[in-house]
Specification:
Structural class of chain B: mainly alpha
Number of helices of chain A: 2
Distance between the termini of chain A: 71 Å
Strand order of the largest sheet of chain B: 1-2
Strand content of chain A: 25-35%
CATH superfamily of the largest domain in chain A: Rieske [2Fe-2S] iron-sulphur domain
Radius of gyration of chain B: 29 Å
Number of strands of chain A: 10
Oligomer: heterodimer
CATH architecture of the largest domain in chain A: 3-layer Sandwich
CATH superfamily of the largest domain in chain B: Cytochrome Bc1 Complex, Chain C
Number of domains of chain B: 2
Strand order of the largest sheet of chain A: 1-10-9-4-3-2
Number of helices of chain B: 20
CATH topology of the largest domain in chain B: Cytochrome Bc1 Complex, Chain C
CATH topology of the largest domain in chain A: Rieske Iron-sulfur Protein
Chain lengths: 177, 487
């Protein structure tokens, strides 16, 4: 065998080994990445379950209601390794014939806290000027839908609500689990 | 094809966009320099330990960074977050076990790497700085093992680190201030976790990376020493390039390490014990296995000799170890012609291993210690079986406050405090040397079986001195409610 041919063969062997080492380390690396990815993405797959119910107040307080009233509610949440109480605001609004409904104060546009402005008889979002009627229907401004009504019920004379967040910038009300 | 030009078209000669990248960064020339490193005498399995350590360090960095996604360094949350990682997060137990067993693997490979260097006389021939940088790396790695050990904040971690930091006070004059500086106070606490965390995650890894860089640079500067019949300064044996044979061997070694660690982590996951409670006087702390001989040594040379045994002798040994390439300067590398260095190292290793054997044998043959260690192991197994309980940051259900809130629990607490219960089980059910803790008992038994056990203690319980509880049904109910509220 001539010297250049020998070098040629040696180089082919070297690049074959290189390919083999590269492939094996690629496979091993990918296998090791699986637990790492599962570990890091755990919070995305494990949402903290069903939203819990929070007390809003005694139903009697809201009986003679003719304008929305704001209420601060305590929401029991589990974030990862700790359970804590978050506070959020909701509006209790009369829904005709003595019924009540509870609206989230989170604007369906970009998530600012909506205010009830008594003088104008409207809900007005302070950020981009979205306005809503007193039952939460959209009147004007950038929001794509009405204010979000929250699931509510009356238990032992207490109005309770299940607080949820909904996807913003969407014409449909879609809960974020 | 004209084969004459082939040698110039080496597979590592970049073309196209690679040529452009190389002309701007020089990365291919660097890679080529690394791969074409000449090894006198050729590739050998004896040379795999250094790259094995580099691989393990990388693995520790990656798993460590991921663990930090959930870990919180504070005495309030450390244990909860490690429990969350171990019990809830997908692959959490596996990654934590990989990280913990990785530390053990590093200690083993450090020993093999040092043994190989000493037996082969690879520190000879103008390699003093290479050796010294390795000594620093050894100290830094042992520091990593020590600081990382505390972070889970379980009983084992707490007491082992308390003992470890107490040894520092033996240093004359500056001992006590140094200990307080390390602990962030006179006692172990949340500031200690912060300090250990900063050392473990920022300071020591930064130094490690710097010294690993220096170690590799100095290694490349001096060149591989080759086998024992090679001259350490002017190599004469035919050389072989690092790539492919030595690289392939190194990668096989790395693969074996990954597989071994993965199997250990999967089949024998690393346990987390119950949270650290400083008041637990019955706990017998034991350090991690590679520190057990030091622990045994301090038992032998305790008391008035502890300054000599704990500080002076280890200091002298470390100084001699670091000075080896300055003392043993000849070109002779065959181990049987260097009896002082090789013999000294073998004797040291044998003594170290012997102390470890004595310690484990002592623990196994002392019935009281063996029983307590078995109880501690069982407590760890029990804790790992309990479901994860999220930490409550709700002020109304915080510890202690709940007692007053529920009248039934308050009544039970009064019965517990007034009766003989608290004298053995502790004022808050935390357990004493005489009886186990009752905290968390509500997770093991439902109210009915707990009430039944109180009235009908098992043989084990009566043997341990637990009397039959003679209470009315309503009082039993209150006591059970209180016991179940203990968390």
């Amino acid at each position: 065998m001539s010297a250049p041919a020998e070098i040629n063969e040696q180089m082919e062997r070297r690049s074959f080994l290189g390919l083999l080492l590269g492939t094996v380390s690629g496979i091993v690396g990918a296998a090791m990445a699986i637990p790492l990815v599962r570990f890091a993405t755990f919070p995305l797959r494990n949402r903290s379950g069903q939203a819990s119910w929070s007390d809003v107040g005694k139903v009697d307080e809201f009986q003679s209601l003719n304008a929305p009233v704001p209420r601060s509610i305590d929401i029991q949440t589990v974030e990862g390794w700790r359970s804590s109480v978050m506070q959020n605001s909701v509006y209790v609004v009369p829904n005709g014939s003595g019924n009540l409904k509870v609206l989230s104060s989170v604007c369906p546009h970009l998530g600012c806290a909506i205010r009830w402005v008594d003088d104008k008889d409207r809900f007005i979002c302070p950020c981009h000027g979205g306005t809503f009627t007193k039952s939460g229907e959209r009147v004007s401004g950038p929001p794509l839908r009405a204010m979000d009504e929250l699931e509510s019920k009356v238990e032992n004379g207490i109005l309770r609500v299940r607080f949820q967040y909904f996807r913003q910038l969407d014409a449909n009300k879609e809960p974020i689990s | 094809m004209d084969t004459k030009h082939l040698p110039e078209k080496d597979s590592t000669t970049p073309t196209g966009w690679k040529e452009w990248l190389n002309s701007r960064t020089g990365c291919y020339s660097l890679l080529r320099g690394a791969l074409d490193e000449p090894i006198p005498g050729g590739a050998r399995w004896a040379y795999i330990f250094g790259s094995g350590l580099l691989y393990l360090f990388l693995s520790q960095v990656i798993t460590g960074v991921f663990l930090a996604l959930y870990y919180v360094p504070s005495s309030d949350h450390a244990h909860t977050t490690v429990a969350y990682i171990s019990k809830v997060v997908s692959s959490g137990l596996f990654l934590r076990s990989l990280h913990a067993y990785g530390a053990t693997a590093i200690v083993i490979l450090l020993f093999l790497h040092i043994s190989q260097t000493l037996l082969y006389g690879s520190y000879k021939g103008r390699r003093e700085m290479l050796w010294l940088s390795g000594c620093f790396l050894l100290a830094l790695m042992l520091g990593m093992a020590f600081t990382g050990y505390l972070l889970p904040w379980d009983k084992q971690a707490y007491f082992a680190s308390a003992v470890g930091t107490n040894i520092i006070t033996e240093i004359p004059v500056i001992g006590s201030p140094l200990q307080e500086l390390l602990r962030g106070g006179s006692q172990m606490g949340t500031l200690t976790i912060s300090r250990f965390f900063v050392l473990h995650v920022f300071v020591l890894p930064g130094l490690l990376i710097a010294f690993i860089g220096a170690h590799l640079f100095l290694f490349r500067k001096a060149g591989p020493a080759g086998p024992i019949n090679e001259d350490p300064i002017q190599p004469t044996l035919p050389v072989q390039k690092f790539y492919p044979r030595q690289l392939a061997m190194d990668m096989v070694a790395a693969l074996l390490i990954i597989v071994a660690l993965g199997l250990a982590a999967h089949f024998f996951p690393f346990r987390l014990g119950p949270e650290a409670v400083a008041s637990d006087t019955s706990y017998i702390p034991r350090p991690e296995w590679y520190y057990v001989p030091i622990f045994e040594w301090l038992k032998v040379l305790g008391g008035k000799w502890s300054l000599l045994g704990g500080i002076i002798l280890p200091g002298i040994l470390a100084a001699i170890f670091a000075a080896i390439p300055f003392i043993d300067r000849g070109r002779e590398r065959r181990p049987w012609r260097r009896p002082v260095v090789v013999g000294g190292f073998v004797i040291f290793a044998a003594c170290y291993a012997g102390l470890g054997v004595i310690s484990y044998h002592g623990d196994a043959t002392d019935p009281i210690v063996a029983a307590q260690l078995a109880r501690q192991r069982q407590a760890e197994i029990d804790f790992m079986r309990q479901p994860f309980e999220p930490e409550s940051s709700n002020p109304s259900s915080a510890k202690g406050a709940g007692v007053a809130a529920d009248p039934l629990i308050a009544k039970g607490a009064a019965i517990f405090a007034a009766g003989p219960c608290s004298s053995c089980h502790g004022v808050k059910g935390e357990g004493t040397a005489a009886a186990p803790q009752l905290i968390g008992i509500g997770q093991k038994f439902n109210p009915d079986s707990l009430a039944y056990l109180l009235h009908h203690p098992t043989a084990d319980m009566t043997d341990g001195g637990m009397p039959k509880v003679d209470l009315s049904e309503t009082d039993t109910k209150a006591l059970v409610a209180y016991l179940r509220s203990l968390k």
